[in-house]
């Protein structure tokens, strides 16, 4: 055999592979600018060079838990798997659900006998998830809150707050003599106002299964008994939604806010419906910016009468003229 021909054994191949891996790993742990050691800044989610300060990576994902443990017992107690708990489900999302799709893990349809078996299992699973009348009550109410919030386009934080309010009302025994739907609707109405995304009583009543008078009565009762701190609705919080539904520009929205600010400084807003003021301000702003919309269009979007819009619209313009003078 010639001296120039080399024979490579499995050991040589493994050694060369390990050396290449070590070299690649070493390069990853070195700064590309100065060759210094890299350090991970977990507080800011960055990988920086300890020598020259170069930020090599940023916006890293923190894959650790959101809690801290100071001993092994506490760590074992806090460790968990699965989705986080939520107040929007009666069991806080701790139980399991059997999917409604009659398919196996490979996406194939189940046989008729298997479908019947899965349907029986779903039925028993639902029965086991609600152990008593209180849990059945809570499940029905939270389902109503979720349905109404979806119809009104309210975000998850409002649904979560509404669920907490309803749970408090249930724990403090405020439901006797009142309907589940009424208290659920009042809880959602209160949560929307607390979160700064209010909906008018007419809008709430439009998606609820109870009458407007009962919602208002139950809302006042729940707020009083639970001592909820809810500020009066700000007319400006309605402006973005009305302007978006009418297809108005940012300039019209800004002008509507200016009209409402002027009205507040003049004290015109006192004792008047915030929805009516917001609708009138949007209508007046559309005229001032030459993006004319009709009173009937604004009335339909805001669910307020045209007469109210006309009256408030004149008051807003008069307040604007007084400031100008």
UniProtKB/TrEMBL annotation:
Ranges of the Sequence repeats in the UniProt entry: 143-226, 237-318
Highest taxon in the source lineage: Archaea
Database matches in InterPro entries: Cyclin-like_dom, Cyclin-like_sf, TFIIB, TFIIB_arc, TFIIB_CS, TFIIB_cyclin, Znf_TFIIB
Pfam families per record: TFIIB, Zn_Ribbon_TF
Record-listed Zn(2+) binding positions: 31, 34, 49, 52
Biased composition (Polar residues): 84-96
Family: Belongs to the TFIIB family.
Listed name of the protein: Transcription initiation factor IIB
The organism of origin for this protein: Halorubrum tibetense
């Amino acid at each position: 055999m010639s001296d120039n021909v080399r024979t490579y054994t499995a050991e040589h191949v493994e050694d060369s592979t390990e050396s290449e891996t070590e070299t690649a790993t070493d390069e990853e742990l070195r700064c590309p600018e100065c060759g210094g050691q890299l350090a991970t800044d977990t507080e800011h989610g960055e990988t920086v060079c300890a020598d020259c300060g170069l930020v090599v990576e940023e916006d890293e994902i923190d894959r650790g838990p959101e809690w801290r443990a100071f001993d092994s017992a506490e760590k074992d107690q806090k460790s968990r798997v699965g989705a986080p708990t939520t107040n929007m489900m009666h069991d806080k999302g701790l139980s399991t659900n059997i999917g409604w799709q009659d398919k196996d893990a490979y996406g194939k349809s189940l046989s008729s006998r298997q479908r019947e078996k899965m349907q029986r299992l779903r039925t028993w699973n639902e029965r086991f998830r609600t152990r008593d009348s209180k849990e059945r009550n809570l499940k029905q109410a939270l389902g109503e809150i979720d349905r109404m919030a979806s119809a009104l386009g309210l975000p998850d934080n409002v649904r979560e707050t509404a669920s907490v309010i309803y749970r408090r009302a249930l724990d403090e025994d405020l439901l006797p003599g009142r309907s589940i739907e009424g208290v659920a609707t009042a809880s959602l109405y209160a949560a929307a106002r607390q979160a700064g995304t209010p909906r008018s009583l007419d809008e709430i009543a439009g998606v609820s299964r109870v009458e407007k008078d009962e919602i208002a009565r139950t809302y006042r009762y729940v707020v009083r008994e639970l001592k909820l701190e809810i500020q009066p609705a700000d007319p400006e919080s309605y402006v973005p939604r009305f302007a978006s539904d009418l297809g108005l520009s940012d300039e019209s929205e800004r002008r509507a806010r200016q009209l409402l600010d002027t009205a507040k400084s003049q004290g015109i807003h006192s004792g008047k419906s915030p929805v009516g003021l917001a609708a009138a301000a949007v209508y007046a702003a559309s005229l001032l910016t030459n993006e004319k919309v009709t009173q009937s269009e604004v009335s339909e979007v805001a669910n307020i009468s045209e007469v109210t819009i006309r009256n408030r619209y004149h008051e807003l313009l008069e307040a604007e003229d007084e400031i100008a003078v």
